[in-house]
Design a protein that fits this description.
The chain is α+β, with helices and mostly antiparallel strands and about 475 residues long. The protein is built from 20 helices and twelve strands.
């Protein structure tokens, strides 16, 4: 998701600063497909006096698209008179505990689904629709930030000052959009979040109305992430997001998570299935015998099969975990020394379909990277927790708007002359592109060198911009055809 194609350089943005109506005009153009009635109502009820929250929201929403990073930069350009608002108006808006950002984000994501359904030409998409849950580190540098603490970074295997952003996303078969999120810290054994008492005492805090949206967000910080993930999934289903699978990594695949999800039923009575990796130290029951997951590949060597599509070995078994029946696949990719345990509650799911569906989980990693690199996720410098909620919400809504723009520009508006080209290239999702263009390269060369497949994919995601540029350079004729067809 590259917003740069829609943005102007700061030196070219003077046209936007004539007055606030110019910003509002850009906002209206970008969101012409969205019904803002509910959003405007939520904003209007959050503040009874002073500047209309609706106008402030629209100005702040547009900033990333005109290359203005934050409120400080906006005010530093000397345009406060043209905008008719001083900086305090914007800061007060961001710090407003009464704004229900969860309801606003939910409205955006729900409308995305409705707009796509209404305008898409592909009415019979058979790709699985999934809710994806994952967390991401938000590293910070100030001890005075409200509720800040040290959290464990699984990538570096060390503790860093910051918070964890738990995100629930939705994959509709072509696009990933954020649906909900919460922010968490890690209290630690001594309940001081890994900090000294003087740092805890010096942190910002404020009294919030117990009935405010901000107060509820503060309460979520201490809630277990698995419990919070379950709550967000239930809310998404209640808001009528059509779902085939819940995707999660090994941290979430626990007894509590699986059992709670299995209790959820759609309106037609169908249960929602889970696909995810499981930690290798889990105890499974196979043929009434308890075994550690990591020991089963050695015990079941005669059951090892080879999958030509994914160039990997796998062992398919039915097992029980905490009295939960699971279809379990032990997978060993070419070049890997260890087996990974892929599980699903869908006992009818084949290995190939389980792998194809689980790969969709990588879309949330792409989302995190795009938001941090292009949309200023984690760029908020406030010490007020409410400002972080506002900043992340606006960032996520920016992403939804870009996703909708990309959806119809890249996937839905190509001519019949290049229909086959569309099928082969333009409709391929970022996940399919990764596997289509680079998996052969991995299997042919990198696997022989012992490069881990997960590390390989992570690096692809981190360097997506560079890779896209190289693809365009080497396949320029294809992009020329696309422009001609448009």
């Amino acid at each position: 998701m590259q917003p740069n194609k829609y943005k102007n350089k700061i030196s070219d943005t003077s046209q936007y600063f004539k007055d606030s109506s110019t910003f509002l005009s850009i906002f209206s153009t970008m969101l012409k497909e969205f019904n803002l009635t509910k959003i405007n109502y939520v904003l209007s009820t959050s503040k009874k006096k002073g500047v209309d929250c609706k106008n402030i929201f629209q100005i702040l929403f547009v900033l990333p698209f005109v290359s203005i990073d934050n409120i400080k930069t906006l005010m530093g350009l000397g345009i406060s008179k043209e905008l008719h608002h001083r900086k305090d108006v914007y800061y007060d808006f961001m710090n407003n505990e009464r704004i229900n950002w969860r309801a606003i984000l939910c409205s955006f994501s729900s409308q995305f689904i409705q707009i796509v359904k209404k305008n898409s030409k592909d009415k019979n998409c058979k790709i699985s629709k999934c809710l994806i849950v994952d967390d991401s580190l938000l590293p910070k540098s100030g001890n005075k930030i409200e509720l800040i603490g040290k959290v464990y970074d699984h990538c570096c295997h060390t503790y860093k000052l910051g918070m964890k952003l738990l995100t629930l996303g939705y994959w509709d078969g072509k696009s990933f959009i954020p649906v909900d999120f919460s922010i968490h810290n890690e209290p630690g054994k001594n309940k001081v979040r890994g900090l000294k008492k003087k740092h805890i005492d010096a942190q910002f805090s404020k009294v919030r109305d117990i009935n405010s949206a901000g107060y509820k967000r503060i309460e979520e910080v201490a809630i277990d992430k698995i419990e919070m993930a379950i709550s967000m999934i239930k809310a998404a289903i209640k808001n009528k997001f059509p779902v085939d699978y819940i995707l999660a990594d090994s941290w979430f695949i626990t007894e509590k998570f699986i059992k709670e999800i299995q209790l959820i039923k759609l309106k037609n009575g169908i249960k929602i299935n889970i696909i995810g990796l499981m930690k290798s130290n889990r105890i499974l029951v196979v043929n009434k015998i308890k075994m550690k997951a990591s020991s089963i590949p050695e015990i079941k060597r005669k059951d090892i099969k080879y999958c030509n599509k994914f160039k990997c070995y796998f062992i398919p078994l039915t097992a029980e975990y905490k009295e939960i029946r699971l279809k379990v696949f032990w997978v060993k990719m070419k070049g890997q020394n260890s087996w990974k345990t892929l599980v699903t509650t869908d006992e009818k799911l084949s290995f190939i379909n389980a792998m194809k569906n689980y790969q969709i989980r990588w879309s949330i990693e792409v989302f995190f990277k795009d938001c941090k690199q292009n949309l200023g996720l984690n760029s908020c410098q406030s010490i007020d927790f409410d400002a972080y909620i506002a900043s992340i919400s606006i960032c996520f809504m920016n992403y939804i708007v870009l996703s909708l723009r990309k959806r119809f520009d890249d996937y839905e508006t190509i001519g019949g002359l290049f229909q086959q080209l569309k099928d082969d290239f333009l409709e391929a999702t970022i996940i399919e592109k990764i596997w289509t263009f680079l998996i052969d390269f991995y299997n042919s060369i990198l696997s022989e060198l012992g490069v881990d497949i997960d590390l390989f994919i992570s690096k692809i995601i981190e360097n997506e911009t560079f890779i896209n540029e190289k693809i365009k350079e080497n396949f320029e004729i294809l992009f020329s055809c696309k422009r001609s067809a448009a």
